[in-house]
Amino acid sequence: MAFSLSPLAGLSSYRLEAFDSVGSTNAVALERAHAGDPGKLWVVSKRQESGRGRRGRAWATPAGNLAATLLLVESYELKTAATLGFVAGLSLADALDAVFAQTPSLGSARIGLKWPNDVLVDGAKLSGILLESALLPDGRFGIAIGIGVNVVSHPEDLPYPATSLQALGSACDAETLFLALSDSWRENCALWNEGRGLEAIRARWLERAAGLGGEVAVRMGGRVISGIFETIDEDCQFVIRDEDGARVRITAGDVHFGAVASAKAV
User: Fold this and answer.
1) Name one Pfam family in it (predicted).
2) Which of 34, 174, 177, 216 could form a disulfide with 229 if both were Cys (CB 3.0 to 4.6 A apart)?
3) pLDDT for the residue numbered 63
């Protein structure tokens, strides 16, 4: 089966460029932006040789997993574009809902969104999302929204639980998942509406939020802030109620849930 867009995504002017193997789908997408691509381009592959995650960390995409990047070329504020990571998380969660509906044993699986950019199933990491941007000569910018999903395999040597669709008992392949993703992205991006619908995205994201109301620790460089995960605010910042009862807003950091995870974070 070859990669393809959902019919409605195609009618909404999205385009597709698929590779058997690629260095980095994000890198290809930003190259296309510099070459004058107008955006709304999906770059996808089942194998990625030099993928990366947040803060330059490696993100392996062995053969059979999904590496998908959507290139958008826009002129609104980069602060607004940064919230597209929440649109991506929701879109993947919706696509997984459709996939899991085909596997009765996965009917009770809990799909959770971990701030700012991970998708979990029953507490184990299934997917990571990475946004990268580049300023273009005409004053606009290209933004690459990278989504990596463990479809047939997942790394074993991580300091946190990870999983794959295959390990969960799903027979879904990368092509089928991407087909569903291209459709759910179209719906959620329309809801987001260049940031004007961010409150609706935020509300939907919170319905799926992992760890909401529980103990959390966030590492920011050498500093760790602990407390209760209260919400994400109107700008999608992470909000903790600390031990003194103060609300602390966090724009970036590594999140750890629960008492044990909090201890590890320290």
Assistant:
1) BPL_C
2) 216
3) 87
User: What is the chain's alpha carbon radius of gyration, rounded to the nearest angstrom?
Assistant: 18
Per-residue confidence (pLDDT) for residue 52, from 0 to 100: 60
What is the second-level CATH architecture of the domain 215-265? Roll (2.30)
d(CA 43, CA 144): 10
Cβ(9)–Cβ(185) below 8 Å: yes
Whose structure tokens read 């609706």?
Answer: 200
What are the tens digits of pLDDT across the range 116-150?
999 999 999 999 999 999 999 999 999 999 999 99
Reference 14, options 141, 160, 151, 181; nearest CA is 181
Strands 254-257 and 215-220: antiparallel
Topology adopted by domain 7-207? BirA Bifunctional Protein; domain 2 (3.30.930)
